[in-house]
């Protein structure tokens, strides 16, 4: 089915806007088309400086509805990320402009920049991932360490954590799948015993 022309024209124009933007020049955001009808795009944002996501590159799936720009694009993180407003399981995002605060004047560029801003300023009181939000509020140092570790493993970030890797290895040696081990340890503040209990209970 042909996408409504207004939506296709808008996306064409916004796609060019992103490509010509200064943020692309600085390698902070990127977008590419996945089909000719302008309904599916792949976005990329760089983890902002002075955050645990720094040095990582995060891939986004962007689906444009036929009713665009009157309805927001559907966006989710393809790259796994540890963040209160992004599901660590599905990559679903809790951000007002992608829901009820969307305005037709917004563009692909504003969406990408808003998501980048969300990485800098989490909203733990309006979480998408309750486990991450709880850690963010109750043990922020542990949250920072975990988010850096996930950025290193999944987004190509520079900060490897030998201690985390070692605990994951212990669980993998017991037959646990690596990502499942990482999730359990991350959720239980890297306490090996509690994580092991949760997996094998």
Could you explain the architecture of this structure?
The protein is an alpha+beta fold and 201 residues long. 44% of the residues lie in helices and 11% in strands. It has eight helices and four strands, in the order ααββββαααααα. The protein has a four-stranded antiparallel sheet with strand order 1-2-3-4. Strand 1 (29-33) and strand 2 (40-46) form a beta hairpin. Helix 4 (130-138) crosses helix 5 and helix 7 (178-187) packs across helix 8 (192-200). The radius of gyration is 18 Å and the shape is elongated. The model has no long low-confidence stretch (mean pLDDT 95).
Order of helices and strands: HHEEEEHHHHHH
Structural class: alpha+beta
Largest sheet: 4 strands, antiparallel
Number of helices: 8
Radius of gyration computed on alpha carbons: 18 Å
Q: How many strands?
A: 4
Major β-sheet strand ordering: 1-2-3-4
Q: What's the average pLDDT?
A: 95
β content, as a range?
Answer: 5-15%
From the N-terminal CA to the C-terminal CA, the straight-line distance is: 48 Å
Helix-residue proportion: 40-55%
Shape estimate: elongated
């Amino acid at each position: 089915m042909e996408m409504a022309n207004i939506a296709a024209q808008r996306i064409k124009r916004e796609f060019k806007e992103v490509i010509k933007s200064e943020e692309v020049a600085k390698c902070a955001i990127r977008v590419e088309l996945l089909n000719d009808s302008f309904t599916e795009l792949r976005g990329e944002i760089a983890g902002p400086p002075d955050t645990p996501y720094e040095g990582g590159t995060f891939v986004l799936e962007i689906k444009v509805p036929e009713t665009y720009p009157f309805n927001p694009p559907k966006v989710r993180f393809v790259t796994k990320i540890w963040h209160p407003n992004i599901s660590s399981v599905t990559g679903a995002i809790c951000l007002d402009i992608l829901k009820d605060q969307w305005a037709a004047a917004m563009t692909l560029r504003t969406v990408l920049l808003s998501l980048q801003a969300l990485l800098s300023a989490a909203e733990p009181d309006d979480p998408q991932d309750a486990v991450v939000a709880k850690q963010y509020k109750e043990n922020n140092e542990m949250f920072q360490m975990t988010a850096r570790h996930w950025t290193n493993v999944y987004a190509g970030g520079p900060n490897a954590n030998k201690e985390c890797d070692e605990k994951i290895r212990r669980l993998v040696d017991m037959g646990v799948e690596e990502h499942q081990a990482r999730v359990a340890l991350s959720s239980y503040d890297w306490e090996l015993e509690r994580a092991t209990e949760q997996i094998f209970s």
